[in-house]
Structures are given as C-alpha cells and as structure tokens.
Amino acid sequence: MEALASSAFLPAIIQEHPGLSAAFKARAKEYDFKQIFALAGEGDVEAIALRNNCMDIWAAALVNCIHAYDPSIIVLGGGILKSSEVILPYLQERVGRLAWCPSGHVEIVNAASGDQAALLGIEYRLIKQYQSVNK
After folding, report:
1. Is a pLDDT exceeding 80 seen at residue 114?
2. Torsion sign across C-alpha atoms 90, 111, 99, 68
3. pLDDT confidence band for 32 (50 / 70 / 90)
C-alpha cells in the first residue's frame, strides 16, 4: 500500500498513473496530497482520478485487515486525514460494500489524537516497558 498510495511515493505514483496527462506528470514533484485533494475539490479531473485511485488502494488495505482481524472499528490517523470529510465517507462506502464482516458493520473513524497518535502509542509502550524493568 505504501508504494501504491502514500505521500512518500506520490511523485512516482503520479508518474506511473496511466490516466494522467504529461503536463500533470511534469509537476509530480510539486504535488502533495493536500494539493491533490484541493485540486480534486475544485473539480480537476486528473486530481480526482489520482485521489480516488489512492483511496481505492486504502480501502483495499482496510478490507484485507478486516478479513484478517475482524475488527469492529478501524481508527485512522495521520496528516492525510485533514481531508477526512472526503476520505472517511469514501472508505466507509467501499469497505461496507466490499468487506465480508461476520461481526457486522465496521466503523471507520479519525484518530482523536490526530497526527500524534503514533507518538502517544510509542510513549505509552516505553513507559510500560520502563515500569516493568524498574520494579
């Protein structure tokens, strides 16, 4: 998923996307997801195609996780979710349609701690580890 739909690989993703014009591809290194989502919001057809392709990949990854782990909720975080008003409904629709969920509907939500979720998780783990070593 990282190689197919992540910020780190966005210039390569743009270059390899078959539906984008040479002019769009020429500016690949200038784009980030914030710009892609803004352009898509303005109706730019190429940005919409790229954005939706990436969201389809994210949805496929979520479906795989659901099939592997059968969660009742999926919490997503990171800077990309500054566009959660677009991303979450899109993912919820795709996952709802494509995932087989024995436990029922899987809720997809934005992390309450936003971009800090991973750091808070690491902090918690390190504190627990330190406490167990220093008993």
Report:
1. no
2. positive
3. very high
Helices (H) and strands (E) in the chain, counts: 7, 2
Give the angle 78-8-46 at the CA atoms, nearest 5°: 90
Return the pLDDT at 112. 84
> Would you give the distance in Å from CA 115 to the centre of its chain?
13
pTM of the model: 0.83
Of 83, 86, 61, the residue nearest 74 (C-alpha): 61
Nearest to 108 by CA among 79, 130, 132, 81: 81
Whole-angstrom Cα distance, residue 44 to residue 35?
A: 11
Please report, for residues 125, 127, 129, the alpha-carbon distance to residue 122 in angstroms, rounded to integers and kept in the order given: 5, 9, 10
Helix axes 45-69, 33-41, angle to 10 degrees: 120
* Average pLDDT score over the chain: 92
Q: How far is CA 59 from the centre of its chain?
A: 8
How many other CB atoms are found less than 10 A from the CB of residue 49? Answer: 16
